[in-house]
Write a structure and sequence with these properties.
The protein is an alpha+beta fold. The protein is built from 8 helices and 20 strands. A 6-stranded antiparallel barrel has the order 15-18-17-16-19-20. It has a 5-stranded parallel β-sheet with strand order 3-2-1-4-9, sandwiched between helices. Strands 11-10-14-13-12 form a 5-stranded mixed β-sheet, with no helix packed on it. Helix 4 runs antiparallel to helix 5.
Length: 392
Amino acid sequence: MKPKKVLVAMSGGVDSSVAALLMKEKGYEVIGGFMKNWSMKKQGIGKCWKEEIKEAKKISKKLNIPLLTFNFEEEYYKDVVEEMFKSYKKGLTPNPDIDCNQKVKFPLLWQKAKKISADFIVTGHHARIKKIANRKIVDDKVVNKKVVNNKEGFVEGGGVDGGQNYKYELLRGKDESKDQSYFLYRLTQDDLKHSLFPIGNYTKKQVREIAKKHGFENYNRKSTVGLCFIGKINLKDFLQRKIKPKKGKILDPERKQIGEHDGIYYYTIGQRLGPRFGIEIERGKEKQLKRWYVAKKNLRKNEIIAAPEKHPLLYKKEIIIKNPHWILENPNKFMKVKSRIRQVGELIPSKLKYSKKQYKVTLKNPITGVSEGQAIVLYSGKKVIGGGIIGF
């Protein structure tokens, strides 16, 4: 039989490089695909894609696979960067990496994959996909649901009626410290059906060891940080390209002015205030209160409410889920879950309830740093149930 063809998203990093290697070792016909989503020369800020494609070319040559280059700059700027600016202008704290996966990386890469008759797209995400058979009626008998996974723990795809009688679950990666399922919660059943995450059952240490064993020069390359495809940047400077500074008051919980900010849009809930952020908090006689944080933002009045550490105003226990997305089906009206509001943040025991046409999550214990616009992702065991945008 002719081997199945896969298009591997290759970034020049160790994860995608090892993903391509694993697919080739399994006998797939592997085509590399490099996505050029951000040009430092064109935009004037961010990391240089030329260094990344140079690494991707080295790995492709070593694996003896072709490497295609796709330019998604226009789509990325319109659907990710501009949307990020719009969210910050509304006083929200968005997660552009989630938008990138949902609107650019997975749909556009799959479009390219179909053009070269590839069966799957492959990425180096630390996450896993589980393929399960649907419960269905056959000659008036119920066929029980069962797991259909190979020993490597990633989907081979296909199945009865071209996969129509299967559903797909998204699971956290084996390496909890590197798990990326948080960024993937908006993937659909169709996305999961034609996607493979071959390194999901490996730790980052194991991935680096595999790369080193096969002579990959990038085996010890640092993981990407910052914005997806842009890299580590000064976010305030980046936002000022589109959102002009506008001074306003910083108030304490009793609404007494204790300082001045230069733009409410640049600050997020839970952010520490002080000289290192260019703001000197005037504490008066309360010199023992060394750390102050953003507790609330009043966009209409252009005011930031700050509070000292451990102040009740900094803590949140109830979260409304806006724009919910569920991987398999809408959850029950009430269920126990674990919630995550940051990529590798704590998994917090919670209760999910559907009432009055909205989903509400109640955390077991209140936490700080919860900001509108962030994503909240819900889990049952290792399985991603879904998630949405945080609201209050």
